[in-house]
Amino acid sequence: MTPFQNAAFYTSINDIRDLPEHSGVEIAFAGRSNAGKSSAINTLANKNRLAFVSKTPGRTQHINFFQLNENQFIVDLPGYGYAKVPDNVRQHWQGLLEQYLQTRKVLKGLVLIMDIRHPLKVLDIQMLNWFAPTGKAVHILLTKADKLSKQKAHMTLQAVTQYLNKSYPGCTVQLFSSFAGSGVENAATVINEWLNVTGSLGKIEKKPPG
Question: Is residue 40 within a helix (H) or strand (E), and if so which, with residue range?
C-alpha cells in the first residue's frame, strides 16, 4: 500500500503568507513542466485525477496541498521550466518556490521529478541548490523510464547516481514509470519513512567547488 491511499485535496495557495499552519509533516513534489510530476502523484495515490495532468507546461500555478492523514501532507509545487508565461508570473512562481523550499519548517523532504530522457537540466540543478542548504532529504524519480530500453534506463540511472554522489551526497534516485507502474513500491517506501520518522532523514550536502 502506498502512503497516499487516503489523499484528498486540502488547499491551494499563491502567496507564501497563505501557507496553512500545522505541526505535522509535509513532503513536496517538484519538477520541470511535463516531467511527469502530476502523473507520479496520481500513480502513488492510485487515483486518476488527484493532481491535474496537462500537456500544457505551467498548468500548476499554485502550491497545492493534499492531506494524507492527520498532520501529513503532500505538497504539489508549481512546475518549472515553463516558457509560455509572462515574465512577472515566472518570477512570482520562482520566488514562491524558493521561499517555500528554504524556509518551510514542517517540510521534511523533496521528491524531485526528472524525465529520464532529460535529467539534471539547469533548473533541476538550481532546485537542488535551493534545497541543499536546508539539509533535508531529496529523492529523485527518473520518470517515463518505459520510454527507454532497460539497458539505456539503467545507464542513465548510473550516470545520475554518480553525479549526485559527487555533488549532492545523500540525495537518492530511482527509476519510475507511471505508465508501467514500475518503481511505485520503492518510492512509497522512501516517502513512508519521511512521513513517519523524524530527526533521522537522509540529508544532502552541497560540496564546495574543487
Answer: helix 37-45
Q: Residue 157, Cβ neighbours under 10 Å: how many? A: 19
Using CA atoms, how far apart are residues 7 and 72, in angstroms rounded to an integer? 10
pLDDT, tens only, 42-80: 999 888 778 755 444 444 578 999 999 889 999 999 888
pTM for this model (two decimals): 0.88
CA 1/CA 5 separation, integer angstroms? 7
Q: How far are the Cα atoms of 12, 28, 98, 109 from residue 18, in angstroms, in the given order? A: 9, 16, 15, 21
Distance CA 138, CA 201 (A): 9
The residue assigned the cell 533548473 is 123
pLDDT mean over 101-117: 97
